[in-house]
């Protein structure tokens, strides 16, 4: 059994400057900016591979000179805030999916009820014939097919969103560290 207080092997990134972590097209100052798409994909991709029952650690390696010019304490919360923001977006997507599912369920059950009642009439109108049996079975099948979407939503579609939301939540709580490394000289 894993210890919930001990982070799994940290996700490690090596960048030349802090600006590589953030989307440079975003007009806000660095701590408020969105994470760079490549950096996000890398972090999220590695986070998916980590055990779900352990906290996540992120270690960002920067040249010692760059790290001395920056305040890492300002950037660590920015990463956590960004993943908290992404978790909120996925939570909204999940809420929207359930809203659509509830609407589809009301429609599907209404169609099923109508078809179940309507399936009683072909035999009364046409007697016990193959045609009346065909109409009855068709109406029942139509009623159940009308419930396909809500069944799909409530049984399957929400799981991937829930997993993604939980992953972003874990990343929002990740311990972020900045560590220096000695940059190689160009004259080599």
Distance between the termini: 48 Å
General shape? rod-shaped
Query: Could you give the count of β-strands?
Result: 3
Low-confidence stretches are none
Indicate the mean pLDDT.
87
Sheet of most strands:
3 strands, parallel
Radius of gyration over all CA atoms, rounded = 27 Å
Q: Give the percentage of residues in beta strands.
A: 5-15%
H/E series: EHEHHHHHE
- Strand numbers in spatial order across the main sheet: 1-2-3
Number of domains: 1
Helix content: 55-70%
SS-based class: mainly alpha
Number of helices: 6
How does this model look, in words?
The protein is mainly alpha-helical. It has one domain (11-181). Helix content is 60%, strand content 10%. The chain is built from 6 helices and 3 strands. Strands 1-2-3 form a 3-stranded parallel sheet. Helix 3 packs antiparallel against helix 5. The model has no long low-confidence stretch (mean pLDDT 87).
Q: In a nutshell, what does this entry contain?
A:
It is built from six helices and three strands; from the N terminus they run E-H-E-H-H-H-H-H-E. It has helices spanning 37-49, 64-69, 72-118, 121-126, 130-145, 148-172, and strands at residues 11-14, 57-63, 175-181.
Lay out the secondary structure.
Elements: E1 11-14, H1 37-49, E2 57-63, H2 64-69, H3 72-118, H4 121-126, H5 130-145, H6 148-172, E3 175-181
Parallel strand pairs: 1-2, 2-3
Helix pairs in contact: 3-5, 3-6
How would you describe this structure in keywords?
188 residues, mainly alpha, 6 helices, 3 strands, 60% helix, 10% strand, rod-shaped
